[in-house]
Amino acid sequence: MLIVQKFGGSSVADAEKIRRVAGIIADTYEEGNDVVVVLSAQGDTTDDLLEKAAELNERPSKRELDMLLSTGEQQSIALMAMCLEKMRYPVVSLTGWQVGMETTSDHGAARIMRMKTERIMRELDKRRIVIVAGFQGITKGNDVTTLGRGGSDTTAVAIAAALHADKCQIFTDVEGVYTADPRKVPDAKKLDEITYDEMLELASLGAQVLHNRSVELAKRYGIVLEVLSSYVRKPGTKVKEVAKKVEENKISGIAKDVDVARVAVVGVPDAPGVAFRVFNEMARKKINVDVILQSYGKNNTNDISFTVPLGDADAAERALNDAREAIGFDHVSIDKGIAKVSIIGAGMMSASGVAALMFEALSDAEINIHMISTSEIKVSVLIDEEMADLAVKAIHSKFFG
Ligand code: ASP
Ligand code: MG
Q1: Is 70 in the pocket of ligand 1 (CB under 6 A)?
Q2: Is 349 a residue whose pLDDT tops 80?
Q3: Averaged pLDDT for residues 103-125
Q4: How many Cβ atoms are within 10 Å of 349's Cβ, its own excluded?
Q5: What percent of the chain lies above the pLDDT cut of 70?
């Protein structure tokens, strides 16, 4: 079998951890498999590099930032290869550019366009273990790029897709995907399986197990992902098209996202085209808008509220204030102290009373809901940030308790 194994930064944080991971890789190889390994930078390396950059230039160009950040992964692949060499395994480490990981030129958020497979195949033919740097790529013009924070997962899936791997395993410091964050909710349960769509929602709604683009890619190419622990050798969670539910649970998980802000545009004229103008301002600034609510305001006006990523809140406020006279609303207000809590489940549409159960849990815990949004597989509510952990616990015990 051809197996792609990805290990995150915490799994390779120091020499002892690298040795442990090398043991997993060696065992997989000994079983007769072709093994391609993708690594992240060790521990907090990427954050440390960002700090170093800021000491010299608070707004460095994205090109130079990528040049710097890509070195983190280059360190871990070389160290892992040395460790395996010492254990007398044939091994070679390769950077993103050496494996021909061609990306767009959006530095810091590059997307993989195609990947050349020759070099990796040649190494595998020699029965070498191949260790590839995650998170990085190269443009057509030979500039180094990175895929965005957490991007090594995406590298692993792209390699698995290009090589038609039999397995793609994502090793991490938790044992799989849980019904809620196990660090916050002690009785959270590990899921045996979860669908791509559920995982995508979980990933984009704040569960930090997998980079959401890696899940998109896996779905597109039908790659079954397995999320499992680098520390405990037992089966993890499979991410696939259709997942079997072990228990009769109506939902698969609960996610919390505190990286959101609420923008309220107060006193907009009750007339056609107004919502378009408000959201057009956001689109022009490339600000992603989520939960939207329009309600009646005073004197024939409406209030339009919506959420944006926390980091875009100030830009959203500025853009709207610049357009205030043209659109004719009264004022904008921003609330950064909010959180989005969501329940996710592919079976939600066919089960009645799911949303009611969630609201009941919040009501029992006396948590006020500011906004609600629903889709086929999720219900999200906006609440005060300081209530978020309590809300997740309350909802969890309602559904799984
Ligand atoms: N080292 C990068 C980061 O910290 C990529 C990754 O870990 O996946 O975001
Ligand atoms: Mg990660």
Answers
A1: no
A2: no
A3: 96
A4: 12
A5: 98
Q: Hey, which of 46, 50, 212 would you mutate to test ligand 1's pocket, going by the most ligand atoms within 8 Å of its Cβ?
A: 46
DSSP character at residue 190: B
Task: Give CA–CA dist 351/251, Å, rounded.
Answer: 9
Residue 230 alpha carbon to ligand 2 centre in Å? 13
Nearest to 334 by CA among 259, 264, 286, 275: 264
For ligand 1, atom 4: residue with the closest CA: 46
For 347-377, give the secondary structure using H, E and C: CHHHCCCHHHHHHHHHHHCCCCCCEEEEECC
Q: Structure pTM?
A: 0.85
- Both tokens of residue 369? 């809901």
Q: Label residue 399 left, alpha or beta by phi (over 0 means left) and psi (-120 to 50 means alpha).
A: alpha
Q: What is the C-alpha to C-alpha distance for residues 229 and 196, in angstroms, rounded to an integer? A: 20
Output the residue whose Cα is nearest ligand 1's atom 6: 150
Q: Which atom of ligand 1 is nearest to the CA of 155?
A: 8
Neighbours of ion ligand 2 (CB under 5 A): 8, 150
Q: Tell me the CA distances in angstroms from 301 to 266, 268, 288, 296, 320, one per residue in order.
A: 8, 5, 25, 6, 17
